[in-house]
Amino acid sequence: MSKNDKDRLVDKIMGEAVMTLLEADDNVSFDALIGQLQDTLHDETDFGRREAFRTAINGVHHFRTLPDEGETPSRSLKLNRRDSVLYHAKSEYKH
């Protein structure tokens, strides 16, 4: 597996964990994300995916410990125009 493939797998695992939290209507926080990743890692049997889970967990831990220096691009979540349109379109149908 190439480095690029490993990065994609880590991104996929992170996305799956976030989607699981959102679908369960849970809060999305560093602690919740780490907990979800750890829970899923516990049940994973594939070596490559287990390594990706460990990388993702370590990444979240590292990101959480970075100093908060205001609105830096690496620490802020900004929606681009396309994401904003999709977000608003989806949120209109909530009951």
In short:
This protein has 95 residues and is an all-alpha fold. 68% of the residues lie in helices and 0% in strands.
pLDDT averaged residue by residue? 78
Q: What percentage of the residues does DSSP assign to strands (E)?
A: under 5%
Q: What is the share of helical residues?
A: 55-70%
The run of helices and strands is: HHHH
In whole angstroms, how far apart are the ends? Answer: 44 Å
Taking pLDDT < 50 over at least 5 consecutive residues as the criterion, the unreliable ranges are: 73-95
Structural class comes to mainly alpha
Describe the oligomeric state of these chains in a short phrase: single chain
Radius of gyration: 15 Å
Described by the principal axes of the CA atoms, the overall outline is globular
Structure, explained:
- The structure is a single chain.
- This protein has 95 residues and is an all-alpha fold.
- The protein has helices spanning 3-23, 30-43, 47-65, 81-91.
- Helix 1 (3-23) packs across helix 2 (30-43) and helix 1 (3-23) packs across helix 3 (47-65).
Write the layout of secondary structure elements.
Layout: H1 3-23, H2 30-43, H3 47-65, H4 81-91
Helix pairs in contact: 1-2, 1-3, 2-3
